[in-house]
């Protein structure tokens, strides 16, 4: 069952999504604050992990398409954090939007739809998000979603090697009570 927002559809991955996802994931500006996914087989494996997560848990980082023309926009959704950290167990919300669609408010719109699904359908008590301190765009999306920075929860990502610039992460939290009041984010 796809999740819909005003302009977007969050849906199960299809084979036709693999090429546009790989193209988006090879864009250095899109991947500036994310771990690289090269070669193409790494992108396919990432999608396969999303499908496996969907089968196991009923949610994942879904493929996002535009309602208007069916264009592939990116990947947005929810994922169980699969490593030990001070804030786990947890479910994270995340997004990766193709650069063509930056500045249109698609990341907060799709993430708000995923969050509503998490709180309404999954009855999650809390949803987290994290990024590197310098990712101003992602942090701005988190603020639009009314997530609160938990400075005491900032952490070094255990799956990113020491000395790598993306290792240190800032943690944002959104409780169910606060999250249920998330409608379409303002200022998109």
Give a verbal description of the structure.
The protein is α+β, with helices and mostly antiparallel strands. It has a single domain, classed as Aminopeptidase, CATH 3.40.630.30. It is 29% helix and 24% strand. The chain has 5 helices and 9 strands. It has a 5-stranded antiparallel sheet with strand order 1-2-3-4-5, sandwiched between helices. Strands 6, 7, 8 and 9 form a 4-stranded antiparallel sheet that branches. Strand 1 and strand 2 form a beta hairpin. The longest helix is centred in the N-terminal third of the chain and has 18 residues. It is globular and about 40 Å long.
Keywords:
5 helices, 5-stranded antiparallel sheet, alpha+beta, Aminopeptidase, 188 residues, disordered C terminus
